[in-house]
Amino acid sequence: MAYRATATTNTGLSPHDVIFGTPMPVALDWGLLVEDSTTPSENAYMKDILPKIQAFREIAMENARDSAERNAKPVNDKAVEPIFKAGDKVLLHNPVVKKGECTKLKRKYLGPFLIIECRPKHNYMLKELATGKEMKRPVHANRLRSLKELPNDYRLRVTDADVRLYESVTPVRNIAVTIRIGDIVYSMCDVIVSPANSGLYHGDGAAKAIACAAGDQLLFDCQEYVRVNEKLAIATPLLTASGLLGPTIKNVMHIVGPNMEDEPFASQPLLATTAVYNCFAACLKTADHAEGVTSIAIPAISAGIFGMDAWTVSGEALKALLDFDANSSDSGGGLNKIEFVCLDLLIADTMNVVFRQGLPPPQTKASCSGENDVVNDSLGEDEYPPVENIPASFPHDVDISDLPSNSVAGDSIALAEANTDNEWYTVKRVLKTKRLRGKDFYLVEWEDSPINSWVERKDLTDYALQVFYASRPPRRRRRRV
Fold first, then answer.
1. What residue spans define the domains of the chain?
2. Which of 466, 468, 114, 461 is nearest to 310 (CA)?
3. Which of 27, 70, 106, 320 could bond 281 through an S-S bridge, CB–CB 3.0 to 4.6 Å?
């Protein structure tokens, strides 16, 4: 009775008012009210009550609309329209808790996923990056959240973590080459390279970190050089004291790389490429001739705030390393260890890919007795030939349409003829994709090669896939008849 007689918040009327068109009488009303002796007929009663019921219902509907708008206003003011687009990386919310799983310990978001198509009303088609599988049904934006990728490697649990992506040796002098993710300040080499500017200001990036860690002695040496010589020229190495970084680090080598925002490098990219090659070559040559120096740590010069392409920097670093190794065999230098240290994950992975193509790591087999044990890598007569006798593999596969008919069996993908180890290719764009035997293959147009070719998902960067899915026209959906 209390519910039927009480006015609700959204309509302003009680349920009895809306249904019967009159306020609900209670027991007190029945005791005090005088009964009307003139009882109207049923038709007269209906004729009198229907307009009242209609009026009450209109008032209730109007009050309900006003209440809905009033309650929705604070929510709508804070609401943000989804800005997802094709090519974005997202995480998918999964509210399902299966039997035997703990609700508190269950990971609520799955992924990462790649948005491959945008549907109406904020629905999206997703593709899992790890497996390459496309979801059969679209997902609404309410279940998605943007993937926030760290600029640095997630594997760096502490500041002095040692994460090695690549290890190899040069073919002539057997110099140990390592690509490491981390802060160059914590390197254990005799010399570390500081990517400085011409005025030796040490205002940002790795140069600032090295200057802060080394202390006043390094700043004094740099100021004294600038006072005498005004500025440090590009690709001219300068050795200074290591200051507080010693005694592990004996010297700090300052080198100025090309800045892509300054002329003439902004308008002449080839000149910048030559300059960054000279930077790496000068660092290696100077360290090799320095007394008591056996190791050097070099960052990705000009690939940071100077804005140079990471692929170009990595290629020139590899070229300078191989040329130094071939031309310094009789120099008598003591350099036997070279570290390339990158703080940015993208630059480190790019350099890792380039070095693995141009200077493959040695092939070893881990024995069953221990992880670090190395066994003899010789092969029997019935096994494959040694690694050095196998031609270097082409960085990508040839397009099937360009091969003769007898080179393709069924839907398999044939390989191209081998080329030199030092050649690597930049992806211009991804043309299309197809799935074959549980793997995703992408048709790639290369920057410096006229041949379009199919490559696997593992050979493409996430950025290339994001650009492909963002620029791909929407697929035509089939309608059921």
1. 2-78, 89-146, 163-358, 391-471
2. 461
3. 320
pLDDT higher than 70, residue 150 = no
Neighbours of 37 (CB within 10 A): 5
Residue 216: half-sphere exposure toward Cβ, Cα within 13 Å: 0
Maximal C-alpha separation, the chain: 129
Find where tokens 């300059």 sit.
Answer: 275
Q: What is the DSSP string of 62-84?
A: HHHHHHHHHHHHHHHHH------
Distance of CA 433 to the CA centre of its chain: 21
Q: Cβ-count burial of 21 within 10 angstroms (0-12 exposed, 13-18 middle, 19+ buried)?
A: middle
CATH fold for the domain made of 89-146: SH3 type barrels. (2.30.30)
Provide the phi-psi class of 271: left if phi over 0, else alpha when psi is between -120 and 50, else beta: alpha
CB count within 10 Å of CB 325 equals 21
Which pLDDT band, with edges at 50, 70 and 90, does 371 fall under? very low
Contacts of 415 (CB under 8 A, 6+ apart): 393, 394, 397, 398
391-471 matches 163-358 in CATH topology:
no
Q: Is the pLDDT of residue 47 over 50?
A: yes
Rounded Cα distance, 364 and 380, in Å:
16
Distance separating alpha carbons of residues 308 and 340, to the nearest angstrom: 17
Tokens of 471: 């620029």
| pTM across the whole model | 0.51
Ramachandran category for residue 167: left, alpha or beta (phi over 0 → left; psi -120 to 50 → alpha): beta
Question: For residue 469, which amino acid is it?
Answer: Y
Whole-number Å distance between alpha carbons of 49 and 409: 85
Question: Residue written as tokens 């492909």?
Answer: 468
The verdict on whether omega for the bond into residue 247 sits within 30 degrees of 0, i.e. cis, is: yes
Domain 391-471, CATH: 2.40.50.40
Q: Please state which CATH number belongs to domain 163-358.
A: 3.40.220.10
Q: DSSP secondary-structure letter at 184?
A: G
User: What is residue 119's three-state secondary structure?
Assistant: strand
Preceding peptide of 112 cis, ω within 30°: yes
